[in-house]
Write a structure and sequence with these properties.
This protein is α+β, with helices and mostly antiparallel strands. The chain has 15 helices and 17 strands. It is 24% helix and 21% strand. The strands form two sheets. Strands 8, 9, 10, 11, 12, 13, 14, 15, 16 and 17 form a ten-stranded antiparallel β-sheet that branches. A seven-stranded mixed β-sheet has the order 2-1-7-6-5-4-3. Strand 9 and strand 10 (496-498) form a beta hairpin. It starts with a helix and ends with a strand.
Length: 593
């Protein structure tokens, strides 16, 4: 049993070691990037003298009272990866209304044809098939977790099980009250639009405008009105053949699925809008296209009002008012705001957030908030890799990865792009940006002094448990053997911490290193979630506790990965120079304090 545990822990350690090396190794990227020029001036934001994807709620998407007819799984399913050139489907002619949408998504392997080379644009889409499209099209953070056991009608070996789990956890699709997903059920148009609106955080409230746009607006289920209004305003809705007929309860076709998903990606700034001279453009519904007035709280509202109306930016809106910046962002512009969500602010220690709102730290708060504001309006499609000057005076670095549909700003990821406002645009981000010369060490005493137990720039202090794998040694201290350990981190200053730990065994060894904590950096090991990895290096003493206790030099290095506001994953390599050189690797979890 011990050997099995040893092998399992060793596998985990190897992964952690790889992540450690990747985190501390310099990354050289040869990229030619020019600073971006935008409209507007930094002077437009007057600095006073004196909670980006909106996060959907965890409530399952409502479904119509009349359950759509169940259908059998089709005998032919689309191929998972089309071959090169397969965008020219024989049943999608050059003048077919949805061809631009279908062709663009097929080129990106978001949708695929059937083995016989056709696309079957008029074939209805099942809920499982729509989940598969969602999984391929969108790369968003998970906002909830599928309960243990999942849906009772989805077997683990079902072809779409991973896609269904992803669509659920990213907020696009939900199950039914009886804990079924009904994968072979046809998805209706209103369900598909609500799904996209939920995943993108689109809502509206002007039902009168919907009545002006759609001749069958009264057929839209009550539960869906707000999200249909939001999707319509965002130009996600496509109506063929009559732009004024929504057809909410009609099964969604494969052509319509391509059109709506394409428009959702345009909304995120990941695809270019369809050219206005193409026939497909005349079927895209949007308040701007029809000349109607946008609903209150959408594009007719300024940046501050738009942020205040969202459940995702309550902390940001409050801080803007505390700093006295709200009026400037309401009246000036245009601006581009990289807006930290409430979840992003929750990553900061609570005491830091509290201290930022104290009068003596107001100038620091202003600098941090204006570091998120770029004069001029830049939609996601206009962002380019390079530096952009902020209203604070220092640039932020933008990286655009078109192959992964990902935009990062410094170490933050854009989770929802292009939230429109009357005087600019908001891009939601998952971390708070801090200028390099601004310290978040805002203690009431000497900020440069030692404050045991504080957070460092690498994250919170903690205490926890770990497993130790001996790499070399084994005849001396317990560090060179497979054992359990107690670990801790006690922050001292912004840069330094002490990390006492004890490795238990026949010759229990106490490790007391002083470490230099490096600044966090972003890593994306899983492909769908960005983690903040905080490396550290240090030295200290190793103490054997047997009868002939010995003290030797200790060298250490590792990384901390915040798992949530309460826990930190730690991986470390320790080398103790005692009678022998004992090297051990620890992987554990700490409880933050």
């Amino acid at each position: 049993m011990f050997n099995s545990f040893h092998r399992l822990l060793a596998s985990t350690v190897l992964v952690a070691c790889g992540a450690t090396l990747g985190a501390v190794s310099p990354l050289f990227i040869s990229t030619s990037a020019q600073a971006q020029q935008v409209r507007g001036n930094a002077s437009d934001l007057i600095i006073p003298s004196q909670k980006l994807s909106q996060t959907p709620t965890d409530t399952p998407t409502q479904t119509p009272t009349d359950t759509p007819t169940q259908i059998q799984t089709p005998t032919q399913t689309p191929t998972q990866t089309p071959t090169q050139g397969s965008v020219n489907f024989p049943d999608v002619s050059q003048d077919y209304w949805a061809r631009p949408f279908i062709q663009a998504l097929a080129e990106r392997n978001i949708i695929a044809g059937f083995p016989d080379g056709t696309y079957k644009p008029q074939q209805p889409v099942t809920r499982a098939e729509f989940a598969a499209i969602i999984q391929k099209a969108f790369n968003q953070n998970r906002v909830r977790q599928l309960p243990t056991g999942g849906f009772r009608d989805i077997r683990s070996n079902f072809w779409a099980a991973p896609a269904i789990a992803t669509a659920y956890e990213t907020g696009f699709l939900s199950g039914y009250p009886d804990n079924t997903f009904r994968p072979n059920q046809q998805i209706t148009k209103v369900q598909a639009v609500v799904s996209l609106a939920s995943g993108l955080g689109l809502t509206g409230s002007d039902t009168a405008t919907l009545a002006n746009l759609y001749s069958d607006a009264n057929a839209i289920p009550t539960y869906a009105v707000s999200q249909v209004a939001g999707a319509t305003q965002a130009s996600v809705v496509v109506n063929y053949p009559d732009i004024r007929v929504f057809n909410p309860e009609v099964p969604l076709t494969r052509a319509e699925a391509a059109a709506h998903v394409y428009q959702a990606l345009v909304r995120q700034g990941r695809l270019q809008p369809i050219a206005s001279n193409l026939a497909a453009a005349q079927y895209i519904v949007g308040f701007a296209q029809t000349g109607t007035t946008p609903p209150t709280g959408t594009t007719g509202s300024d940046i501050v009002t738009t942020a205040s109306a969202s459940n995702s930016f309550t902390v940001l809106a409050s801080l803007l008012k505390t700093a006295g910046l709200a009026e400037s962002l309401q009246q000036g512009g245009p601006f581009t705001v990289f807006a930290p969500t409430d979840e992003a602010f929750a990553r900061l220690p609570k005491e830091t957030l509290d201290r930022l709102q104290q009068p003596e730290n107001r100038e620091t708060l202003i600098r941090i908030l204006t570091y998120h504001v770029v004069p001029g309006q830049l939609t996601a499609s206009q962002l380019k890799t390079g530096d952009i000057n902020t209203a604070e005076g220092k640039p932020v670095n933008v990286k655009v990865n078109t192959s992964e549909n990902r935009v990062t700003v410094n170490n933050a990821q854009v989770t929802q792009a292009d939230i429109s406002a009357s005087n600019g645009v908001i891009h939601a981000i998952n971390r708070v940006l801090v200028p390099s010369d601004v310290s978040l060490n805002l203690g009431s005493g000497n900020q440069a002094g030692v404050d045991p137990g504080r957070a460092t720039r690498g994250g919170r202090s903690y205490i926890g448990a770990a497993g130790n794998i001996g790499i070399t040694g084994g005849g001396g201290s317990s560090l060179g053997e497979g054992n359990f350990a107690v670990i801790s981190k006690i922050g001292l200053t912004n840069n330094f911490s002490v990390r006492p730990s004890a490795v238990f065994g026949d010759n229990t060894t106490v490790l007391v290193p002083l470490t230099f904590d490096l600044a966090p950096r972003a890593a994306n090991p899983t492909g769908d979630r960005v983690f903040a990895i905080s490396p550290y290096i240090g030295a200290g003493v190793a103490i054997e506790t047997d009868d002939d206790a010995e003290v030797g030099l200790l060298l250490t290095g590792g990384l901390d990965i915040p798992l949530a506001s309460r826990f930190t994953l730690n991986g470390a390599v320790n080398a103790a120079f005692l009678d022998e050189t004992d090297v051990g690797v620890q992987v554990g979890v700490g409880f933050n304090f």
